[in-house]
């Protein structure tokens, strides 16, 4: 069987970096320019903004939301949506807590269990959508609530601490880069975000799964008619996104040195906001991981910058909302033009 | 063209934020307050107290808290943004003390005093903790109970929790005071309803059934008190003296209608005020007590609309 499905922005530029930079360049330039402007404005407005420790705080704040946004990007490119990323993250953190703290097993097993739980839940969501034909919004809304409830049940509604797992907090808080370059103590959580983003970008650009991800979003019917088992690929995308949420679960648990079972609601919307600011279309078929990364950074810079400027909390929320609308408006205006 | 529009929009939004009133004040001492919440009436009352102290001591404060008490990581992000601003001191009520320890150490190394408030911070880094003295508050409830039942007879306690600090302190404060000051009053039982209204109702009904001569019940938090009130309604035990804790619409309604005699309310305004005051004093190197009692009030039908009381009650 020779199906030739190309993503809408097939490109001849060689090399991963080239590919990352060349497609959808315009929107990402917009997003990137906005990011730079935000950084400049905040630096001018407050002498405390542009200092190493604060920049690291911003990156640290981006790490969890960034990983969730990468997961959301994959699903959104297929034309779907995943509302369960936040509570799935919490659920996987609780699973890690059960394996490491309750059962006292070694660290790698805890990490593997969290990621496996993520893949399994993603597989379930994907199956509800592909096999049972439940719309993604409803299927993942249900999943969001199921996972929130299960996290509370399994943990007994109490945080699970990782005090008996030495090194667990270093996964996110430690700094391998800082060990090599003491001037640049970038936390491991940030490093993991970039590795996840690179890997996801590679999958999207270079693998069959990536090509089908775009194809499902552009024209699912055409892909099906060309003899492809679209259900299987769709489930695979949700499972992959679930696995990435498992990584986010480990990151947040490590950062807090605990699995907080009540956390997670609302995180899905922030992840989706980052994806949208980064220029990925909610109607599917288009999107980049680099854009999402920039989107997540814009959200974090904005939140942090407004805080450092001591803007009242009510207004921080207003400004963040305005920026989201602005970003999507810019994107739509560009599309209409081209 | 388009990018210019985006740029203008971004700049516009930022100009808006820069123009907001609290943005740039000149050379005032800056004290960020990181609370456990923001939207809830209780926290808005804490904020009002903090604002009042900020005006009085001429310092600049910001008051922030996550949307829900589950968002531990958001609170940590708030704390690190606060530290980036090189504040003179910080007020902090930890959602999870353990998660905050690395940043609190950072504050300590930078010589920034941390004032804990409300439930405080489980660590020796904070210079002081501004909170309700729950032992004393519950002792006041015991005195009021004694007064209302004529200093004699049987009473019971419906407590919210046997493990949390507030649960233990409010129970023991009540029991100890009865033993010391009111020897003719017998506390027949202490039972726990987890602060859940329905569970507390069942607990209170069981107590009433088992002790027909009971004169009064003390409910140690909002849910417990409402549970006791429900039990009184369901069993038509009109002569029972009910004393509660905190406020909330159901409880204030019960007090107005006379089913509940009165309740102890904490003083969230005082918590905010004392936190900022202690932070200012800490920067001046003053010795602070380990705990600052932020006060509490007993309120009943007669003073529930008193402006001082009304200000600290929430719906």
UniProtKB/TrEMBL annotation, chain A:
Chain segments annotated as transmembrane: 29-49, 55-76, 83-103, 109-130, 137-161, 181-204, 235-256, 289-309
Keywords: Cell membrane, Membrane, Transmembrane, Transmembrane helix
InterPro entries the record matches: ABC_transp_permease (IPR001851)
Pfam family, one: BPD_transp_2
Compartments where found: Cell inner membrane
Membrane topology, from the record: Multi-pass membrane protein
Family per similarity comment: Belongs to the binding-protein-dependent transport system permease family. AraH/RbsC subfamily.
Protein name, entry field: Ribose ABC transporter permease
From TrEMBL, chain B:
Cellular localization per UniProt: Cell envelope
Top-level taxon of the source organism: Bacteria
Matching Pfam families: Peripla_BP_4 (PF13407)
Cited Gene3D superfamilies: 3.40.50.2300
InterPro entries associated with the record: Peripla_BP_I (IPR028082), SBP_2_dom (IPR025997), TAT_signal (IPR006311)
Signal peptide: 1-25
Residues of the Periplasmic binding protein domain: 33-287
Keywords, sorted A to Z: Signal
Keyword field contains Isomerase: no
CDD domains: PBP1_ABC_sugar_binding-like
PANTHER family: D-ALLOSE-BINDING PERIPLASMIC PROTEIN-RELATED
Family: Belongs to the bacterial solute-binding protein 2 family.
Name used for this protein in its record: LacI family transcriptional regulator
């Amino acid at each position: 069987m020779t199906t030739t499905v190309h993503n809408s922005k097939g490109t001849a530029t060689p090399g991963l970096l080239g590919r990352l930079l060349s497609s959808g360049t315009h929107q990402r330039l917009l997003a990137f320019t906005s990011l730079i402007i935000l950084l400049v404005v905040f630096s001018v407005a407050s002498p405390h903004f542009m200092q190493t420790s604060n920049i690291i705080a911003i990156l640290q704040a981006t790490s969890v939301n960034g990983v969730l946004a990468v997961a959301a990007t994959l699903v959104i490119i297929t034309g779907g949506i995943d509302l369960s990323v936040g509570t799935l993250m919490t659920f996987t953190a609780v699973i890690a807590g059960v394996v490491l703290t309750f059962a006292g097993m070694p660290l790698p097993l805890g990490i593997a269990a969290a990621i496996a739980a993520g893949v399994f839940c993603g597989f379930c969501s994907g199956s509800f959508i592909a096999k049972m034909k439940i719309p993604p919004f409803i299927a993942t809304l249900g999943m969001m609530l199921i996972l929130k409830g299960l996290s509370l049940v399994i943990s007994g509604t109490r945080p699970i601490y990782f005090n008996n797992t030495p090194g667990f907090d270093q996964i996110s808080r430690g700094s391998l880069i800082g060990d090599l370059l003491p001037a640049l103590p970038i936390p491991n959580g940030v490093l993991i975000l970039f590795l996840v983003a690179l890997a996801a970008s590679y999958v999207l650009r270079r693998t069959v799964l990536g090509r089908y991800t775009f194809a499902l979003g552009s024209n699912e019917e055409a892909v099906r008619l060309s003899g492809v088992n679209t259900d299987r690929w769709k489930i695979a995308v949700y499972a992959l996104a679930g696995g990435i949420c498992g990584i986010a679960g480990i990151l947040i648990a490590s950062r807090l040195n605990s699995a907080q079972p009540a956390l997670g609601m609302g995180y899905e919307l922030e992840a989706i906001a980052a994806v949208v600011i980064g220029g990925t279309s909610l109607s599917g078929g288009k999107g980049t991981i680099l854009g999402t990364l920039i989107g997540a950074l814009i959200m974090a810079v904005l939140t942090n910058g407004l805080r450092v400027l001591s803007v009242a909390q009510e207004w921080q929320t207003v400004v963040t909302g305005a920026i989201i609308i602005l970003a999507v408006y810019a994107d739509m205006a560009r599309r209409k033009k081209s | 063209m388009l990018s210019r529009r985006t740029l203008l929009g971004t700049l516009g939004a930022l100009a808006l934020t820069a123009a907001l009133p609290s943005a740039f004040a000149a050379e005032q001492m800056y004290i960020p307050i990181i609370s456990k919440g923001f939207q809830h009436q209780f926290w808005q009352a804490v904020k009002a107290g903090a604002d009042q102290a900020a005006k009085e001591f001429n310092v600049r404060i910001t008051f922030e808290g996550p949307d829900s008490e589950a968002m531990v990581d958001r609170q940590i992000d708030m704390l690190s943004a606060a530290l980036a601003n090189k504040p003179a001191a910080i007020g902090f009520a930890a959602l999870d003390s353990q998660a905050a320890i690395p940043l609190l150490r950072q504050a300590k190394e930078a010589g920034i005093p941390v004032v804990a408030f409300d439930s405080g911070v489980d660590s020796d880094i904070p210079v002081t903790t501004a909170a309700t003295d729950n032992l004393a508050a519950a002792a006041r409830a015991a005195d009021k109970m004694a007064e209302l039942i004529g200093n004699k007879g049987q009473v019971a306690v419906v407590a919210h929790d046997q493990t949390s600090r507030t649960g233990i302190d409010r129970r023991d404060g009540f029991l100890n005071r009865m033993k010391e000051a009111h020897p003719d009053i017998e506390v027949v039982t202490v039972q726990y309803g987890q602060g859940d209204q329905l569970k507390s109702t069942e607990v209170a009904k069981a107590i009433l059934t088992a002790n027909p001569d009971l004169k009064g019940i003390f409910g140690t938090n909002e849910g417990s008190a409402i549970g006791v009130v429900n039990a009184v309604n369901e069993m038509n035990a009109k002569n029972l003296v009910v004393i509660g804790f905190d406020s909330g619409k159901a409880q204030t309604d019960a007090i107005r209608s006379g089913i509940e005699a009165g309740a102890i309310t904490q003083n969230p305004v005082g918590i905010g005020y004392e936190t900022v005051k202690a932070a200012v004093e800490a920067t001046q190197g003053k010795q602070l007590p380990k705990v600052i009692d932020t006060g509490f009030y007993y309120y009943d039908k007669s003073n529930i609309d008193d402006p001082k009381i009304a200000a600290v009650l929430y719906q």
